[in-house]
Design a protein that fits this description.
The chain contains four helices and six strands. It is α+β, with helices and mostly antiparallel strands and 187 residues long. Strands 3-4-6-5 form a four-stranded antiparallel sheet, covered by helices on one side. Strands 1-2 form a two-stranded antiparallel sheet.
Length: 187
């Protein structure tokens, strides 16, 4: 029974780490005033009938602090990439000069910064909900073990351990959000 509890808690911890990893990936996509190629992560372009990420059909690079350049490997991909960026609605209009696409990131206004912070908090709340759901599932599993013969004290200890693990990951989410908010609000 003790091994079962340990495996439940370690399994929950693994899932919580994945939730934190997802949060980190989402926060990277939220721009903080400087150009970052990861802003266009997840934008898919139609490449000869199949959907491919922009990074797989072009070279994406940072020209300066506020400009990204996208150099397609094939000239006929300029239009589909431009359309995909517009359709993704990332708040940036692509500039197509016939050879490369430039994305000029406008300077962030105070209002836009606050919107980005709200978006970060929304992502953080989604991560917290995921972590709490993982905790709930683990505790339900512990209660099933208790019905199968696990002592009440061992079940309570396991639930306490699960809560401590949950608190640790919730505070990690808060730390990530605080760091991203500081980064966004820095002028």
């Amino acid at each position: 029974m003790a091994e079962d509890i340990a495996s439940i808690i370690s399994g929950a911890e693994d899932h919580m780490k994945k939730a934190i990893g997802h949060l980190e990936a989402e926060l990277v996509k939220i721009r903080a005033g400087k150009a970052n190629p990861q802003i266009i992560d997840g934008i898919m372009v139609d490449y000869y009938g199949s959907h491919m990420p922009v990074q797989q059909v072009s070279n994406v690079s940072v020209m300066d602090a506020r400009t990204l350049s996208i150099q397609p490997w094939e000239k006929n991909m300029l239009q589909p990439i431009e359309k995909a960026i517009i359709a993704a609605n990332i708040g940036i209009n692509p500039q197509n000069d016939g050879n490369i696409i430039r994305l000029f990131l406008p300077p962030l206004t105070e209002e836009r910064r606050k919107e980005l912070v709200k978006k970060c908090h929304h992502e953080g709340e989604n991560s917290k909900v995921a972590i709490r759901n993982i905790r709930r599932d683990a505790i339900e599993h512990i209660k099933r073990l208790q019905k199968q013969g696990l002592s009440e004290d061992a079940a309570k200890d396991a639930e306490t351990n699960m809560q401590q693990v949950t608190d640790k990951f919730i505070s990690a989410v808060d730390k990530h959000l605080a760091a991203k908010e500081k980064e966004i609000m820095a002028v």
